Amino acid sequence: MISTNTISENSSLRSVIKLASMNTLGARIKKYRLALGMSQKALAMACGWGSQSRIGNYESDAREPTLDDVRTIADALRIAPEALLLDSEGSVQNVQMALQPTRAPKEYPLISWVIAGEWAESCDNFHPGDADMWIASTENAGEHGFWLDVRGDSMTCSGNPNFPEGSRILVLPEADLVSGKYYVVKLESGESTFKQYVEDAGVKYLRPLNPAYRTIQIDGPFKVIGRVIDTKMTGL
Q1: DSSP letter string, 29-50
Q2: In which residue ranges of the chain is pLDDT below 70?
Q3: For the chain, which terminal residue's Cβ has fewer other Cβ atoms within 10 angstroms, N or C?
Q4: pLDDT of residue 196
Q5: Other C-beta atoms within 10 Å of 37: how many?
């Protein structure tokens, strides 16, 4: 049985959100931030933003966030975006979102990390028979997209998104680097790894979601194999 986790690059609800009262959202951001013992600066860094003023503006009703910003903040706070957007009765208050058409599912091959590690050097189309398993997604991973089985528990956490060992991630190859998004990268050592990419003041980091693992500063060259745009949990 495969169940879907809640990471999505092309959600049917996206674009800019408008809130008549920013105080409610700002109060929730502050509440969850303080619950983790984080300063505004620490939260801004976790989001991949260079200044704490962005968080301060959101918490004080001085600036309206985009839905992408809400998702980024929720990821950093290790909560679902709905925890910031929903009121105590479970409804979204004063939020206007643009409805986008739903894409038809498309199947992508499940490949090995060995193949993924060489993807940048050999980006050819997969065809039926090239992989033992093909898995469908409504996310658009392009002509060269592929699935990987997650290895290890460095991306396991109690929040959302959560990528436990054995779950599957859909990779969009040759994607631009965006701080706060999740990527499969090939390091100078030749190792391919899956982490959250964070850039702060020109310094690049690979951040695990599991607090038991350390954040990696990228000192040398690396190759972006692709951005993770969907995930599925596997189970019986």
Answers
A1: HHHHHHHTT--HHHHHHHHT-S
A2: 1-24, 61, 87-103, 117-130, 235-236
A3: C
A4: 93
A5: 7
Which pLDDT value is given to residue 195?
A: 94
Q: What is the pLDDT of residue 102?
A: 47
Helix (H, G, I), strand (E, B) or coil at 206: strand
Peptide bond into 173 cis (omega under 30): no
pLDDT of residue 184: 93
Nearest Cα residue to 209 out of 188, 181, 235, 176: 181
Residue 61: predicted pLDDT? 62
Residues whose CB falls within 8 Å of the CB of residue 58, separated by 6 or more in sequence, listed in order: 22, 25, 26, 29, 65, 69, 73
The per-residue pLDDT for 183 is 93
How many CA atoms within 13 Å lie on the side-chain side of 228? 29
Q: How far is CA 77 from CA 42, 44, 57, in A?
A: 11, 11, 17
Cα–Cα nearest to 54, from 33, 85, 80: 33
- 9 contacts 229 by C-beta, under 8 angstroms: yes
Q: Delineate the domains of the chain, giving CATH numbers in brackets.
A: 18-96 (1.10.260.40), 106-234 (2.10.109.10)
